[in-house]
Amino acid sequence: MMSFGSLSLKRVARGRMEIVEIVGQAKHGVTMPLRCRVEDGSIYYVKGPSAGYSSLTKELVCGRLAHAFGLPVPEIAVLTVPRAFRGIGGAERLGLGPVFGSKEIPQAFEVSYSDLADIPDQIAKQILFFDRWILNADRILSKAGGNPNIIRSRDGFFVIDHHNAFDPDAGEADFWKTHMFGGLRERSIDKAFQVQFSDCCAICLEAWDDIIGAVPERWLYIDDLMTVECQPELAAMRAILDRVNEAEFWSWI
User: Which residues have CB under 8 Å from 158's CB, separation 6+?
Assistant: First the structure.
């Protein structure tokens, strides 16, 4: 049976934790997150406006969707940057508004090709379907290397980095060919899988208002005057997710 994540998705607009220290640069990540300490002493990987507001929105929405979906994901949060950080090295990448944070998993490392055999099929299928649902083709791994966006620790495997989700150019054929779990499509996905995951998606969509309620308004616009909306808009993201209710979406089974 699939284990669902907690669906008590609280808004995080109030009571945001403040960053108190920039610890350093993350070792991995195209968007160059910073390791930051927050007021409760925890370490978060933080992305600010330099990563793009649309990227921050997708990270938060997909992280909360993944949690509701039952995927193992690090704790995520919207954090604040104190004005006192102006002039500190790296602070210019954080700006002064709300930023995205993903809590550090102790002693975690990026998975390699040799780790694939240890990932349970059920989790692999969940990840594969979730990525297809949110149009995320950015999870690639072969003997030659890649960009798995999965980390491993003594507590298990965790899914990270969804800034490339909701990509309308994530073509069907290329997705199955390049996704690190694409081979599961033919050997272990059937109609029973469809029923199971349809129910899971329905639970996520019921929580949609709570999920997007956590998104800071500033992130929805390109400019500081908030006159030009980022793409894709939240409504466009929801339309992509609603594909799961159409017969065509399941034609690959």
Answer: 72, 73, 74, 105, 108, 150, 151, 152
The token pair at 92 is 């210019």
Residue 95 CA to residue 82 CA, distance in Å, equals 9
pLDDT for the residue 10: 40
Beta bridge partners of 44: 36, 103
The CA-based angle 73-79-83, given to 5 degrees, is 155
**What does pTM read for this prediction?**
0.90
Distance CA 35, CA 43 (A): 7
pLDDT (tens digit, 9 = 90+) per residue, 133-185?
999 999 999 999 999 999 999 999 999 999 999 998 887 788 999 999 998 88
| Three-class DSSP labels, 133-186 | HCCCCCCEEECCEEECCEEEECCEEEECCCCCCCCCCCCHHHHHHHCCCCCHHH
Residue type, 168: P
Residue 194's pLDDT is what?
Answer: 86
User: How far is C-alpha 184 from the chain's CA centre?
Assistant: 21
